[in-house]
Amino acid sequence: QDQSQTAFDVIVVGSGAGAMTAAVTAADQGLSVLVVEKSDKFGGTSAISGGGIWIPNNHYFKRIGGRDSHDQALTYLRAATAGRVDERRLLAYLEHAPKMIHYLEKKSRVRYAVAHKYPDYYQHLPGALPGGRSLDPELFDTSLLGDELNNLRSPSPSTLLMGRIAWTARDAHKAMARERGWRFKIMGLMLRYQLDLRWRRKTRMDRRAGLGSALVCALRRSLMDRKVPLWLKTDFQELVLEGGREGGKVSGIVVDQGGVRRTLTARKAVIFGAGGFEQNQQLREKYLPGPTRAGWSATPPGCNTGAALLAGQAAGAATDLLEWCWWAPTIAVPKEEKPRGVFAERAFPGAIVVNGLGRRFVNEAAPYLEFVDSMYKDNAATGGRSIPAWVIFDAHFRFNYAMGPLMPGQVMPDSRLRKEWLGSVYWKADSLAGLAEQIGVDAAGLAATVDSMNDYARTGIDADFARGGNAFDRYYGDVNVKPNPCLAPIAKGPFYAMRLDAGDIGTKGGLLTNADAQVIRADGSPIPGLYAIGNTSASVMGTAYPGAGGTLGPAMTFGYIAAHHIARGA
Ligand code: FAD
Fold first, then answer.
1. Nearest C-alpha to atom 49 of ligand 1 is from which residue?
2. I want to staple 308 with a disulfide (CB 3.0 to 4.6 A). Which of 177, 272, 383, 526 is the partner?
3. 127/42 Cα distance (integer angstroms)
4. Ligand 1: residues whose CB is within 6 Å?
């Protein structure tokens, strides 16, 4: 790739979904654009994500007759963000998110469908919908990328059927919830994969990409269509500021390419889409609650280390929410480069989560952000007994449902699991007391907790945490289990335990921005020429996670907003 050009209208730092959306939009506005990515792969965390985007009032939902409105979504967002976010940013999001996705559908390779059964996460808040705001990427034919496919950050095996077959979140949900026809669906996907003989000869990976991989492939192809260069192994180091820190203008960046420093000129603006700081242990210890480990994060190791945050701070930017992550519990698996997020399985009937005292401390089916937030709160209250927490289930659960890397026993019995996983990924004993001893959990506490849960499973009412009491909890329940699809007894040995860490899928705090995605100082004035989106910016969602796609939706929307704002020359 020719890398001789050194001046562009816009330089976008990072190649996640927000960054590439900004680049596509800016190019369509007639601006010359460069995308720089420090890694040797494009896509960032966005590439290994579910690719879901939370877009209130979107046209896909309307197309299938769904009803949503700007006002209803605003009511919900106001309640979810509880005054923590400048209302002008909320309004900008609500106005532009539906426009952004409509635009991408019309002008780019990006294709979505509505996951109409996926409920907003806070069903108790006014304005919540039982489905319709979360969108799920359609599968993407990766042959359209040609050789560029080699530069894609590979999806995690956990996001693929059998570790290699692409599927949509809608398909995955059908299988997990064991909805009618799920077996046919799976067989169909496997058959399509097997019969693609031409592609099979090339690689065992699926020709199609799904989820976050589909999203970033579609955006990457859209950049190729526009001849927008994306330079890999180009590590942003610092901003070039004209006129000093006070009142200065950002006019470029300094990058490192394999040890060689280069200065690149951005005639109009720099857009930071360089992720957060979750992979930087030092910054974690400085800002996040403890205990904290970069190794608990489900994001790609080494990518998001906070360079853009530090450069923004050095340029005088204000910050917010630095003590927050997009929390999600994770399970570490030996030989895998990063742990796996545990998003759905906590809601399956017959698994409970306990602290070291053997006590439950949260509704296991709660959204992942609130789940880990509860781990931290309980950890403080119990003197350090909730990080890690332990998920406990029995032989019946093991046979029927997945948990982390353990596929249901009916597909993958214990005899076929890797030997080294016993005692590192899962623990197993004939009795609950034996299990408690192995994992250092109070046996009497665990026995009492299981007794009450077994009662709750019979009555269908979780008297402690109301698990299964709303549409979001039940989304990942088993529709065939009555009276409560999220509750089943833990009674049949052997019994199992798995360790849950206080993980994340990215940090949530960062540079403070205004409704135009401009980075602002503490007095609210914008730093000319500097924009931030995605996890480089303080989230427009405040401390909340309103629904599936609550991180990528804003990243892409504010990328779209930033590009238009730059093009208007404002
Ligand atoms: P990224 O996508 O991580 O992109 C940042 C890029 O910047 C990276 O490629 C990085 O290498 C690059 N970069 C960093 N520093 C530099 C530098 N100095 N110079 C140049 N480049 C740099 N969110 C949703 O909304 N919906 C979902 O369905 C969803 N599912 C998820 C599933 C999993 C398993 C995980 C781990 C996350 C999921 N998330 C989801 C969260 C979401 O993926 C992230 O919050 C989102 O990708 C963050 O986007 P970003 O653009 O800020 O960062």
1. 534
2. 272
3. 37
4. 13-19, 36-39, 44-46, 48-52, 235-236, 273-275, 298-299, 303-304, 307, 326, 341, 505-506, 534-535, 548-552, 555
Ligand 1, closest atom to CA 338? 36
Looking at 3.30.930.10, 2.60.210.10, 1.10.10.10, 3.50.50.60, the CATH number of the domain 1-159+211-326+506-570 comes to 3.50.50.60
Is the ipTM, as predicted for this complex, more than 0.95?
yes
Rounded to whole angstroms, how far apart are CA atoms 551 and 542? 11
pLDDT at residue 29 tops 90: yes
Q: Which of 13, 15, 20, 46 to mutate to test the pocket of ligand 1 (most atoms within 8 A of CB)?
A: 46
Reference 298, options 251, 344, 248, 338; nearest CA is 338
CB 131 within 8 A of CB 116: yes
Q: Cα of 46 to ligand 1 centre, how many Å? A: 4
Q: Where are the domains of the chain?
A: 1-159+211-326+506-570, 161-205, 330-502
Nearest CA to ligand 1 atom 31: 49
CA of 531 to the centre of ligand 1 (A): 17
Distance from CA of residue 486 to its chain's centroid? 23
Residue-level pLDDT at 570: 61
**Closest of 468, 446, 471 to residue 459, by C-alpha:** 468
pLDDT at 363: 98
Query: Token pair of 180, please?
Result: 């009618």
| CATH 3.10.290.10 corresponds to the domain 330-502 | no
Rounded mean pLDDT, 143-156: 95
| Torsion-angle region of 424 (φ positive above 0: left; ψ -120 to 50: alpha; else: beta) | alpha
C-alpha angle 556-561-564 in degrees, rounded to nearest 5: 125
